[in-house]
Amino acid sequence: MLSPQTATLGPELQNPQEPEEPQTPAQGTRQTSSGKEPSAHHENTTRLGLGILRRAFSRASQRAVTQATKEDAGLLWRRSSSLFRSFRRAPHEGPAAGQSQVAAVPEISSRVMDGGSQQASTGVGPKELEPEAGEGKSVADLITERQLLAAFEQLRHLETSLVAEKASHTFEHDPTAFARRAMDVCLHYDGLAAEIGAIVRETLGPDGVDAAALTELARVVRAEEEAHPEPPADGDFLRTPRRWRQHWEDAVQRSAQERVQRAGAGETSGAVEGAPGLAQLLAQLGGLVRHDLQKVLLEVQPAYAAAGFPAWGAYLSAFHGAVAQRLQELAHDARGCEQLYLLLDWAANVYGSPDFLGAPDLVLPTKPLPPLLAPDVWARLESSYTSFLETKITGCFESILQLERSRWAAGEAPDVLQGLYRAPLSTDVHMLVAEHVKAGGAISAELEATTLRICARALGLFVPRLEKAFLESGAVSEPHLGAYVNACEELRTSLLARFPGILKELEKPLVAATRSFQKHLLQGFQRDIQPLFRVVCTKGWLTQDTLHPLMDKVVAFAHHLEHVAQPWAQETLQEVHRYVVREYLAQALRPRERFRGAERVNGSQKMSLDAQAIGDTFQGLGSEATWLDQAILCVAEILGETYKDDIRRHLETLIQSYPDIRRDHILAILALRRLGRRRNHSLLQHAQDLLRVAAKAASSGATGGHVLFEEIEVPTSVDVLITCI
């Protein structure tokens, strides 16, 4: 049995204005039977002690009450309800007394906070919850002063004594006395738990960290766990584990949620609209979380660790969950490509960065924590972002096209950079693709691949539009065409080298556009020099240097090709070389005038000189199409050969060098030479044998695929018909 001095828990909680309920006759009978006669002096003393209890306990829980959530406010009522439900189920109470006291439970529960439980105790007077003489402070005062461990030790002592009295059937004739005293213990346990929550809420506040209070908190939680390791087998509610560690973790979570929700709380709704407002809010959120976690790791955790209490994991998990909840709220309201990317980037690169906490040794662990955003939320954000991104990139390509149109209208010539014509188009497209792909790669590899596919698809649609718009404009010129050939080639080679595989579908439209620009480049040159071939194989041609103006234009055109990227420059130069030789031969095989005698010999010599000049010029320009050098020379030798038997040898060289030559071309050449019927027949027969062999070689691919005579149209003339006859 506890002494009356050691059982006091603290001041009374009764409202002074609440009238005292009259005592029923049944209550007076029970008190008389128990041998404890109340007196007026006893009641006055009780009211005085309970008034002090109320004021002290109110001071102890004032901070907790003003800051507690609705769950904390309902904690006392849930404890009292559980208490009385357990009491009603107690099987050892007497029937009459038990029924009588159960009927009085509502009255007790409504008055337990004002100290009424002390007035009906069995022989333990109003000083039962007062501290022992010399010990000084009550439980309420200890809680107020945050001497939590001392308060818990007194409560534990009272709990043990009360359980012992119950076991000895002390309350057999007055079970409500046990309920009142047990309620006092439970209420003070709840007050102590509320103080734990208040300490947690104040830990990250502006007043700084109270290391002593945190150490005391950790010790009292561990002491409670040691005192109540598991629920008692008999279901005694007094010895049921209070689960203060869980209560502490819940308080930590509420504290983290309150702190995280403060980020951007001072901004108006309009101030956080748009990407700049969201960026500012996320910056505030990151700064707040970083500051609080640094404080936890450097100040709070050491205080808890002194009592062997791991606090870092709980705080980290609480802040992680609070940040995840806040991000999901922001994600729900995010609009536009920029806002969606800001959220994805902040989650992946800011919060997930190794230096988020500001020091290499302060790193957020990734494995123990769940994803900051749930997989479905992350997938929805990425899907929305890519939808907006596709529209944005298409708009960017449209802007690039408008810039190019403005340059065409202004008549701006392309720059020469590192010896090549260069259009800004290439730089603009490279920057656009690289910027967005890099941004997507900063979030995830999947988003990088998706962004790359979007860019490739948009670029594949843009290139034909650019080609069509340019060719329809009035700005078509050799420098511009060369610049766009270079731009397409650079995009094809550099993008494919940097992003292999995914951009293979882009190679086809880029190559097609390049060939189109090259074709128009050649067509402009051909239109320019075509009239100069009309004088070839005329009588004026025999005495004038008609080839010089033509080769001057070739050299001028080749100057533009020096600023075109390889292999397109060499390919274009060879095509120019082939075109000059082909047109020269076409004019020679259908001459406007026929040469006889000395004129034919002079024409042969002039043709040989022209062949040499053409070959030397293109060789000097760098043409690698040396296979064209024999064509004009062979025709000239046939025309000027004085030994008719050697014509067979010249025909063999011509047919073997140019397997695409046809019988019509041989007839046209022989018609120029004007041989006899028998010799023509013999040469044609031999030529046909050579042509059959050449055709077989061409079908097997052994000739290299060179085409020259196949594109030369030879109309049937009277001379050709005579040669055939």
UniProtKB/TrEMBL annotation:
Q: Disordered: where is this region? A: 1-48, 113-133
One biological process term from GO is: exocytosis
Asked if the keyword Phosphoprotein belongs to this entry, the reply reads yes
The family database entries (Gene3D superfamilies) matched by this protein are listed as: Exocyst complex component Sec6, C-terminal domain (1.10.357.70)
Q: Which domain of life is it from?
A: Eukaryota
What are the GO MF terms of this UniProt record? SNARE binding
GO cellular component terms attached to this protein's record? exocyst
What family is it from? Answer: Belongs to the SEC6 family.
Among PANTHER family, the record links this protein to:
EXOCYST COMPLEX COMPONENT 3-LIKE PROTEIN 4 (PTHR21292:SF14), EXOCYST COMPLEX COMPONENT SEC6-RELATED (PTHR21292)
Please state what the protein is called: Exocyst complex component 3-like protein 4
User: From which organism does this entry originate?
Assistant: Prolemur simus (Greater bamboo lemur)
Name the lineage: Eukaryota, Metazoa, Chordata, Craniata, Vertebrata
Gene from which this protein is expressed: EXOC3L4
